[in-house]
């Protein structure tokens, strides 16, 4: 059984053996001599970090129109991809390939096959191009995050942007905000409730953006040194958490609850070797019981929270639930017609095909309201199997990395725990939402996966110093 799990998760994979036999990989380092003579390329990783940081700085503030926001992020990703190619050709160090990379290569291959079989090839090709850019973005981040300084720097930039977004959300909660759509059932007790959306113009999208921010700001309380950075981290936790609550996003709340449960388990695993015998046996049950008790008390004492959570179980009586149920009926028909490789990757394909299957003009949709159903529609059961495989392998790589860090008592493990928890939280929200496919969340998702890949036991950690500007930002997050 253990051998089967190792094969499934590629735990016994030897990337170096594959690298030695790969024709494509022979090009890596072909420009190494040029890099050694170039002063600018001596700071290649730092330049890459600046380019990727632009994605985190700009993404929450671009117009929320799906097509426009996607195209803007795509332009940034093209720049990142071009520099990654240059950096890889001029690379002066090897390694960095993990089982996660292999599974995502398979996922890309299935997406390419789906594109070739798509009845809407032009739209599917655009979708494949975007998938390719996201995967290159992951590869770049998995490389950059091998440096603890760059890792702290990029996470710090994201947290500062999230704080700005949350502060505006809090402002909307206090002073009110125009509701840009019917986000609450008009017949419910929350009909007049303001759901904040900040700069992202959608409360569910805002909630998905804030889920990792809350987790990483909690982690920052332990990683950042000095009373000022720690105080800032605590402020981030409070503001981000309050802003998430006033989005009234049920999917995000479910994701947050699942993330808290996983966090309790991972923290217990990290602390267990140093716990007294009693707490080794009872710490986890007590923590889980306390979490459930706090959630139960909150539901009893906060009517708006209770009503919103109970609406999850009201079936078609809730208008939001009813829309999802009707969309899922149409999606089921789409899957039935093309089960293996779907209609092709990308939301443009879905928008083009869905009207043929929708049950009523009242139930129009831009997505399948579930990342797993959306994946099946786009690239079929073969594609969703590859996606689930990559998620399992990523989670397993995270646990392997955590085991290594626990043995070394390396506090950078807190970032890894935060990444795993964020991954679970986003998947929890994505079960009944497709905000995961929006560029603001997709870039965060691949950043999270990149963090996990960077901690894989077979990957060498790199920290050879940074340029003055980058070093200043990094020190603010670690050594203030």
Low-pLDDT segments, ≥5 res: 464-480
Strand content: under 5%
Strand/helix succession: HHHHHHHHHHHHHHHHHHH
The outline comes out as globular
Total beta strand runs: 0
* CA-atom Rg in angstroms: 23 Å
Q: What percentage of residues falls in helices of 4 or more residues?
A: over 70%
Structural class: mainly alpha
End-to-end C-alpha gap: 48 Å
Report the average pLDDT across residues.
86
Please, how many domains?
Answer: 1
Keywords: Membrane, Transmembrane, Transmembrane helix
Main location: membrane
InterPro entries: Inorganic_carbon_transpt (IPR006007), O-antigen_ligase-rel_domated (IPR007016), WaaL-like (IPR051533)
Subcellular location: Membrane
């Amino acid at each position: 059984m253990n051998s089967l799990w190792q094969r499934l998760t590629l735990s016994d994979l030897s990337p170096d053996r594959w690298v030695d036999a790969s024709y494509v990989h022979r090009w890596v380092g072909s420009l190494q001599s040029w890099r050694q003579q170039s002063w600018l390329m001596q700071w290649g990783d730092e330049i890459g970090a600046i380019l990727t940081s632009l994605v985190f700085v700009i993404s929450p503030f671009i117009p929320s129109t799906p097509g426009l926001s996607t195209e803007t992020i795509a332009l940034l990703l093209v720049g990142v991809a071009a520099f990654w190619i240059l950096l890889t050709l001029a690379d002066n160090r090897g390694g960095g390939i993990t089982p996660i990379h292999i599974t995502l290569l398979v996922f890309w291959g299935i997406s390419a096959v789906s594109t070739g079989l798509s009845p809407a090839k032009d739209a599917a090709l655009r979708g494949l191009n975007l998938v390719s850019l996201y995967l290159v973005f992951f590869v770049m981040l998995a490389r950059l995050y091998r440096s603890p300084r760059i890792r702290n720097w990029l996470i710090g930039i994201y947290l500062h942007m999230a704080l700005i977004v949350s502060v505006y959300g809090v402002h909307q909660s206090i002073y009110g905000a125009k509701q840009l759509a019917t986000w609450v059932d008009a017949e419910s007790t929350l009909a007049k409730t303001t759901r904040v959306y900040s700069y992202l113009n959608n409360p569910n999208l805002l909630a998905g953006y804030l889920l990792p921010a809350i987790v990483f700001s909690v982690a920052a309380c332990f990683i950042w040194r000095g009373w000022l950075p720690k105080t800032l981290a605590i402020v981030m936790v409070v503001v981000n958490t309050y802003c998430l609550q006033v989005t009234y996003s049920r999917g995000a709340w479910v994701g947050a609850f699942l993330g808290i449960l996983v966090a309790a388990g991972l923290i217990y695993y990290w602390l267990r070797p140093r716990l007294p015998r009693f707490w080794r046996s009872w710490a986890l049950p007590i923590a889980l019981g306390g979490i459930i008790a706090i959630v139960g008390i909150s539901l009893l004492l906060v009517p708006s929270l209770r009503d919103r959570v109970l609406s999850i179980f009201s079936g078609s009586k809730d208008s939001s639930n009813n829309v999802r149920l009707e969309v899922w009926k149409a999606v089921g028909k789409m899957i039935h017609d093309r089960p293996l490789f779907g209609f092709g990757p990308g939301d443009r394909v879905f928008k083009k095909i869905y009207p043929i299957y929708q049950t009523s003009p009242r139930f129009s949709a831009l997505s399948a309201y579930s990342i797993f159903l959306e994946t099946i529609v786009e690239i079929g059961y073969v594609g969703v199997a590859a996606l689930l495989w990559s998620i399992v392998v990523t989670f397993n790589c995270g646990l392997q990395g955590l085991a290594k860090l626990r043995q070394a008592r390396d506090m950078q493990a807190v970032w890894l725990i935060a990444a795993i928890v964020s991954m679970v939280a986003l998947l929890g929200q994505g079960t009944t939402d497709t905000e995961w496919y929006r560029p603001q969340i997709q870039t965060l998702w691949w950043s999270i996966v990149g963090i996990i890949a960077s901690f894989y036991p077979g990957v060498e950690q790199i920290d050879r110093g940074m340029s003055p500007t980058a070093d200043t930002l990094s020190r603010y997050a670690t050594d203030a």
